[in-house]
Amino acid sequence: EWEFNVEFKIKQLIYAITIPLSTSIILANLLIILGIAWNRQLHNTPNYFFLSLLVADMCTGVALPFIPLMGLNRELTFSSCLVAHVFPNFLFLAFLFNLVMVHYERYIYILDPLHYGNLWMHRNFPLALLIVWAPPLLYASLPAFGWNNWSGQMFPNAFIYLEVYGLVLPAILTIAGMTGHVLWITRGQLKDICRLHRSVERGSQASDHEQRLNLRYTRCVVAVSLTFLACWVPYLIYMHVCIAFLISDTKWSSTTHIILSCTGIGSMAVVPLVLGLANRQYTEPAYKLLQKLRDRWRRRTRDSNEASCGPKIIVDL
């Protein structure tokens, strides 16, 4: 009975943290997905890649309540184990692969815009979509086929180490490297603009326009850096804490594990939402809908006030 009460309290804590976070992630992704579907001008290959990322992020939000449960020792049937372990891991890896693909596609657009339309992923979109969804499913399904048990006899926890240091960490470093290179390219272009501006103005000191450009670039660097730190550092902490406890073979508090896992996975799932909500084209349909609802509510309020004031005026007359 005591173990049942402890497990019940742990599940209550998990659901109390994950349900609001999961709901927010799902609704925000649906908002951006409907924005892309509503605007026909956004029906192109780059936005299809971003749409695939949003679907993966929404699925990650659906699986978020199950991820902290993966760290609990429970007796499960084979089918329940697939749902509780393989399915969330597949969605997480698919989200990561889609995120790398979106960053790579936009990175090439900035790096080599002249040959951007001839990218292999644009010419073979179904193949690119298969690449970001099939390998995560294959890798996440390996334990279901006994690969983890076979490799664990020679290399304990090989599956976890391979996923963390062979897939997850290289993907995060790749995203960070592409983002840093884009900022470096932007800095070089900004210097060229300032140099041309000075040659036209024939002045040696920075003008107000150059100072505004430098200030805007500084704000961009700060925003990108803070976003990266806020979205990825919690997950990196959670990942390496798990590895440290796995190496030391010590048990740790379930509450700590729940908080770290929910914070890490939740912060990482915010990345596509930041990219989507920052684009006005994605949020314009929702903004117009809210504006219409606000105008209609104000019109009803004004009409009701006029209707209530009408009889009073007649009585006074």
Automatic annotation (TrEMBL):
Residue ranges of every copy of the G-protein coupled receptors family 1 profile domain listed in the record: 28-275
GO molecular function: G protein-coupled bile acid receptor activity
Keywords of the record: Cell membrane, Disulfide bond, G-protein coupled receptor, Glycoprotein, Membrane, Receptor, Transducer, Transmembrane, Transmembrane helix
Locations listed in the record: Cell membrane
Leader sequence residues: none
Chaperone is among the record's keywords: no
Transmembrane segments: 12-36, 48-70, 82-104, 125-147, 159-185, 220-246, 258-278
SUPFAM superfamilies associated with the record: Family A G protein-coupled receptor-like (SSF81321)
GO cellular component: plasma membrane
Record's bilayer topology term: Multi-pass membrane protein
Entry keyword Glycoprotein: yes
Domain of life of the native organism: Eukaryota
Protein name per its UniProtKB record: G-protein coupled bile acid receptor 1
Organism this protein belongs to: Sphaeramia orbicularis
